[in-house]
Predict the structure of alpha-1,2-Mannosidase.
Amino acid sequence: MRGTQIRSVLLFLLLFLAVYVSLGDGISPEEAKELREEAREMFYHAFNGYMDNAFPLDELRPLSCAGEDTLGGYALTLIDSLDTLALLGDRQRFATSVEWLGKNLRFDINKTVSVFETTIRVLGGLLSAHLIASDYATGMRVPSYDNQLLNLAEDLARRLLPAFDTPTGIPFGSVNLLHGVDKHESKITSTAGGGTLTLEFGVLSRLTNDPIFEQVTKNAVRGLWARRSKLNLVGAHINVFTGEWTQKDAGIGTSIDSFYEYLLKAYLLFGDEEYLYIFQEAYAAAMHYLYHDPWYVEVNMDSAAIVWPLFNSLQAFWPGLQVLAGDINPAIRTHAAFLSVWRRYGFTPEGFNLASLSVQHGQKSYPLRPELIESTYWLYKATRDPRYLDAGRDMIASLQYGTRCPCGYCHISDVEQHKQEDHMESFFLAETVKYLWLLFDLAVGPDNLVEKGPYKYIFSTEGHLLPATPQISLLREHCLYYGAYCRSGDLRQTYFVPKSDKDKKESNDTIFYDSWTKDTYSSDYTTFEPSPVSGSIKGFCPGLNHGQKFGLLYAHSTDERHDYETNQVQQKESTTVESHSVLVLRGQSSDHLVAEYGSDRNDGQTHESDGTP
């Protein structure tokens, strides 16, 4: 029995090495064009199938050529597809879709929806489309457009705000768009669900000049990070009222994945160094405790004991995130390992057991996920290594021959049997085919909104395009980017803190209606301001202590603050570790957002003297 296991391990290692050392067959420019057009055709096969057979229902059933409402009943797939239409240069369909949504979309409906899914798919889709349709510089300006999608986005976000009315600031997982949070709503939410809202809500704050959206999502991130373990790890699920972790498995996959993603991307888009500081601490811990080169495992957040030796398909976004962070070498190795699983089955199963080297029982499906394709795109963008074009070609072939259905593309319920299931997630159009098209357009010589447009773009976790326009990225001029100057008096940031948390009871009752408007919010909450900063130097502002610099000011009760401070003391006393040092560069090159990664350093210490993490 032991000999058989050793043989299986050796065979799988040989498979991995064969993938890793392959230099690629070398795709010619003509073949890259053909593959780009094939990716475009894939999008329109699915999009037309949805519009002809499912619209205005949420999603398509591609085998039966029918539709179904899966989220809120408001044309979800169309909203999720808007910026892909713009990216492909389809002015007519983009304009027609924007106009239809502006006239027909409504959110005053009695539907209970996921805060996370509604934010990343609907709110993100509306904001991205608004920013494209309203700007002549994008080349996709819609003449009749008059901020209808922005108004819809603001209306939707205000209907989500009651979910954030919790003692911890971490939102409920679901909210009713008409009545707020139900009193029987579960108090348990995932880390990703509470920590993957900052981009969409932050952009909305900047477009509407209302800080409430950004503040509640930033406080949610602070609420999660304040409850990290002494190892700087976070768990998978948490009670939004008590702040207690109900599942302490730490990983980079299911229930946690995009928490890490939005820390870095919020810094890249908004220039807020608090997010960068938290990301660097969290990333160092992940690389030390979760990384077993080239794989990642799940561990107990307190002890770091391995609890789950599993490759989860949602982990596949990680190499792409490492490219953005500048940590290229481990990204290359991990991507090669993940790709070996894809090539073994034709797809990535939801779970692959690293101990038995087989598909995890009960996790055999492939729901058209984009994460591995996304990382393939980012690695090709960073390295121009043709092996990633070979990988993209294999992925197109797998999708075309394994998932193509009469009216779209089907889920695979079993990657070993390649059995099709009658469902197509909206993210197939928002992400999966988008990244495939971008990959081969990049190989041909890009001429699209992302590569040649007027702005740098950050992709949301749903693949929506969020531009780093001055209105979004330079809302407050501050000294956290090179070449800026500290300005006395107008550098203050306002933090909203409840007057008292002790009156909150363990109840989910929510007052909605107009309670989240600017006037009522300002009357119910007090503000405090860090000391103003003066000076006229480039780089970091002088005279800030560590807490002021990174805004580590948590809106918690006295007991919670005491627990946090105790945790900080324990952290300083803990054994220091070696991990990857990440240097994020907001450079001018359109091909490389970041390009450097450093040597190992001592991540157990914080340089409070100069505020450098």
User: Anything to note?
Assistant: The first helix runs from residue 2 to 21.
